[in-house]
């Protein structure tokens, strides 16, 4: 696991206000066993007023800054996309709010690999995630 993600995981793992199932969901997103070579998840806001969902800036690709998601973002993600407690997986919700190929997403959501490659996710990626979610026993 990326050292930055590992530090974030330790903070979330210790929080008593985060349900166990939601902690499991976050941990799976920090590991992403369904993505070969996965290192870390990053987000970039597409609308104003979303600063509270951003953690530390991780990189800038020359087009936009990319951030690690804040706890507020993770909380929104487990209630919306993996609702209600982190155990589900809804392709439509993922796509609506996070996919580059959606009509009006709130964020771009990307995976960064250990080799430095960044992949901005779309609907097909979320379909793969939800298939993996079922295999993981969510």
Low-confidence stretches: none
Distance from N terminus to C terminus (CA atoms, Å) equals 21 Å
How many domains, in number, for the residues?
1
Order of the strands making up the biggest sheet: 1-4-5
Total beta strands: 5
Helix content: 40-55%
Structure report:
This protein is an alpha+beta fold and 138 residues long. It has one domain (3-136). It is built from 5 helices and 5 strands. It has a 3-stranded antiparallel beta sheet, with helices on one face. Strands 2-3 form a two-stranded antiparallel ribbon. Helix 1 (3-14) runs antiparallel to helix 2 (20-31) and helix 4 packs antiparallel against helix 5 (123-136). It is globular, with a radius of gyration of 14 Å. The two termini are 21 Å apart.
Produce the secondary structure layout.
Blueprint: H1 3-14, H2 20-31, E1 38-45, E2 54-60, E3 65-69, H3 71-80, H4 91-98, E4 107-113, E5 118-120, H5 123-136
Write a brief structural summary.
The chain has five helices and five strands, in the order ααβββααββα.
Write out key terms for the chains shown.
two-stranded antiparallel ribbon; 5 helices; single chain; 5 strands; alpha+beta; three-stranded antiparallel beta sheet; 138 residues; globular
């Amino acid at each position: 696991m990326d050292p930055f993600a590992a530090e974030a995981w330790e903070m979330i793992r210790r929080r008593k206000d985060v349900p166990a199932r939601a902690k499991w969901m976050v941990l799976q997103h920090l590991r992403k066993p369904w993505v070969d070579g996965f290192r870390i998840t990053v987000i970039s806001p597409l609308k104003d007023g979303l600063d509270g969902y951003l953690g530390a800036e991780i990189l800038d690709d020359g087009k936009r800054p990319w951030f690690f998601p804040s706890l507020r973002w993770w909380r929104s993600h487990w209630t919306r996309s993996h609702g209600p407690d982190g155990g589900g997986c809804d392709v439509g919700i993922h796509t609506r709010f996070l996919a580059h190929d959606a009509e009006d997403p709130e964020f771009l959501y990307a995976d960064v690999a250990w080799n430095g490659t960044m992949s901005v996710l779309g609907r097909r990626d979320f379909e793969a995630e939800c298939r993996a979610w079922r295999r993981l026993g969510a």
